[in-house]
Amino acid sequence: MQSHLVAALDIGGTKIAGALVDDSGRILVRAQRPTPAREDGETVMRAVEAVLAELAASPLWAGAGAVGIGSAGPVDASAGTVSPVNVPGWRGYPLVERVRRATGGLPVELVGDGVAMTAAEHWQGAARGYDNALCMVVSTGVGGGLVLGGRLHTGPTGNAGHIGHISVDLDGDPCPCGGRGCVERIASGPNIARRALENGWRPGPDGDTTAAAVAAAARAGDPVATASFERAARALAAGIAATATLVEIDVAVIGGGVAGAGEVLFAPLRRFIRDYATLSFVQRLTVAPALTGTDAGLLGAAAAATPAARGRAPVTFSG
């Protein structure tokens, strides 16, 4: 029987993924369901329970000592609740208690999805070896997390580094979070696609209107698609540079579905970083694509729960 396994959950606006992960970061069992994001809170919870039930059906489940959750935010790790902007049925939802109940009382650790991705990238990815890093998930939403002084910095409620909801356009569009001109409102996948469509871009014969389709059009030279990605890159650069100036990070790691656009995103992002990160102590800031891919949320959730599984002080994810 495997020992020291962790059940990991990665909860976002599009999918709920689960896995059994060992202490070396190997994913041994997987499960996944679509997120019924527009349904009521209990319907969303039933999807979470279905993922957990599929994991529990594995003979390896007996080796699981804890559950780690990386959830779209904001989260309140101190209260065990979540209020994801893209899942309106969950507001102050007691996710930790519900998952603990569904798993027969296993210890549960909750972090935001950006913090989970940060833990994964600092443990096994592009932020490995850096003592000060910002890691970002740019997908349906935009999340982030910080490593400061070689340690994961989560803040009191687990939301430190939540760069998606800082304003980079004071007169910009209202954001579902209640703010205006947020990084997420400009740089998330749905908003890249929305802006391209509003400015005259039209999808191909397959009718695909996702950010991936906009990226493909930009790669083929479509000026409207290119402009939408450049606007997203500028927003990301402004947010990253502001963060670097505030806390002196050495690297910004970008993951999530939008990062799959490759140089369509990263070429203008690196260019705009030079425009915004102008002070001497941030000019050497590095921007890099994430390495842990679509498993970042699961690996980071597992890393966050490892202390509970082993009954010792939190790990620092310093490699």
UniProtKB/TrEMBL annotation:
SUPFAM superfamilies: Actin-like ATPase domain. Transmembrane segments: none annotated. Belongs to the ROK (NagC/XylR) family. This is ROK family protein. The lineage of its organism: Bacteria, Bacillati, Actinomycetota, Actinomycetes, Kitasatosporales.
